[in-house]
Amino acid sequence: xxxxxxxxxxxxxxxxxxxxxxxxxxxxxxxxxxxNDPKAGGLDKAxxxxxxAQAVDHRRFEDRPGFETALKDQLIAASPDIICLAGxxxxxxxxxxxxxxxxxxxxxxxxxxxxxxxxxHKRAIESGDAEHGCxxxxxxxxxxxxxxxxxxxxxxxxxDTVQTLTARVLVxxxxxxxxxxxxxxxxxxxxxxxS
Length: 195
Ligand code: GAR
What we know:
By secondary structure, the protein is of the alpha/beta class. It has 2 domains: 1-100, Formyl transferase, N-terminal domain (Rossmann fold, 3-Layer(aba) Sandwich), CATH 3.40.50; 107-195, 3-Layer(aba) Sandwich (Rossmann fold). The protein has 6 helices and 8 strands. It has helices at 13-21, 41-48, 64-78, 94-100, 120-126, 162-185, and strands at residues 2-8, 28-35, 53-55, 82-85, 104-108, 131-138, 148-155, 192-194. It has an 8-stranded mixed beta sheet with strand order 3-2-1-4-5-6-7-8, with helices on both faces. Helix 1 (13-21) links the parallel strand 1 (2-8) and strand 2. The longest helix is centred in the last third of the chain and has 24 residues, at 162-185. The protein is globular and about 50 Å long. The two termini are 30 Å apart. Bound molecules: glycinamide ribonucleotide (GAR). Glycinamide ribonucleotide binds next to helix 1, strand 5 and helix 6.
């Protein structure tokens, strides 16, 4: 059984969907939820689901390497086989990423390689794109880069606001990430394309 740690920064809706999916004959189980923000709503949701959940508050550290050392200590104590970034909003240094490379996944709200970074929904609307979506990829040293493991697409409607488009993409994130994780945990890295 593969051990999965999930890193969050906020409400953790993707974390909940991932954790809920890991039951029955699924080849993985959640062993830890970590947040860089002690106020992240996802921490209590994880505890309610019986998953150990802790915060490593990045504001308590003078620099990024200090924060990452504390994060790494917590992760190593849980000995995860796979780490899922699920709305984790801190940029990780190449050294940290290298330690977990090939074992760390991220979900990003765009059809990568389009719109790396922040404000992806706004940028897609302002560019007049006809479609948008989400990507699950392996994490490498470059931000929002690395081999694509799955994508899901949604249409952009004429009346869309950032909020309506965010909600439409999130529905797909909740399907895509558990789908990719299940395949990845079973050793399948073939990309999956939904809708
Ligand atoms: C999700 O939309 C995820 O794709 C995005 O943050 C949201 C977290 O929501 N991640 C990024 O933007 C990472 N660059 P959640 O906390 O409800 O899962």
